[in-house]
Design goal:
Blueprint (H helix, E strand, L loop, with lengths): L19 H14 L12 H11 L3 H16 L10 E5 L10 E4 L5 E5 L9 H14 L6 H14 L10 H4 L11 H6 L5
Parallel strand pairs: 1-3
Antiparallel strand pairs: 2-3
Bound molecules: zinc ion.
Zinc ion (ZN) binds next to helix 4.
């Protein structure tokens, strides 16, 4: 049983006056919401750090709005009384960790962070569905309860549910998300369309 609301923070509102300093503050807030601050730590040099803060500042509100609407789709796959008090943000993860998303059950509201630089936009919903499943199940791990909730969610969202014979060890990679060639390019704003 959870409170029926999706938290809308300042990061979801459009803020035309974003500055690089606010980009830095944003990253610090993401570090505080991660399971460990080091997860949102890119080990960049000062110049790249500045570039990243400048690049995310004007774009982050819009990106988070997209994530919030995906989250809402997940919430709508459950009865109102089952929906969770939950917030979602985009954040760049340390490259060597090789993770696309995380669900921090220890914050109130629960926090989902997605490294949108690592996944093609068409698959952001898939990554969010995976993390939302962790939030619904309420305990870490990819086990039977996780499989059942993820299957329910995939069917509701029109995503392919995990095959019955998919081993538990593979559930951590379901639904499959297509990686981007260069996650950092997204965050540094050097992507060319
Ligand atoms: Zn997982």
């Amino acid at each position: 049983m959870g409170v029926v609301k999706v938290t809308v923070s300042n990061f979801h509102l459009s803020a035309p006056s974003w500055t690089p300093e606010q980009g830095k503050v944003y990253l610090q807030k993401m570090q505080a919401l991660a399971l460990k601050p080091s997860i949102v730590q890119l080990r960049l040099d000062a110049e790249q750090e500045r570039q990243l803060c400048s690049a995310i500042a004007p774009r982050i509100a819009q990106i988070n709005q997209k994530l919030a609407s995906c989250l809402l789709q997940c919430q709508h796959c459950f009865y109102p009384q089952q929906r969770l008090s939950i917030q979602i943000f985009a954040a760049p993860f340390a490259q060597h960790l090789n993770i696309d998303g995380l669900c921090n059950l220890n914050t109130d509201p629960i926090t989902i962070l997605i490294d949108v630089g690592r996944i093609i936009p068409q698959h952001w919903l898939s990554a969010i569905a995976h993390e939302y499943t962790h939030a619904q199940v309420g305990i870490a791990g990819h086990h039977q309860a996780f499989r059942e909730t993820l299957t329910h969610l995939c069917l509701g969202l029109g995503l392919t549910p995990p095959p019955h014979d998919l081993p538990e060890s593979e559930l951590q990679n379901w639904p499959p998300c297509q990686p981007t060639p260069d996650p950092l390019a997204f965050w540094l704003g050097t992507l060319t369309d």
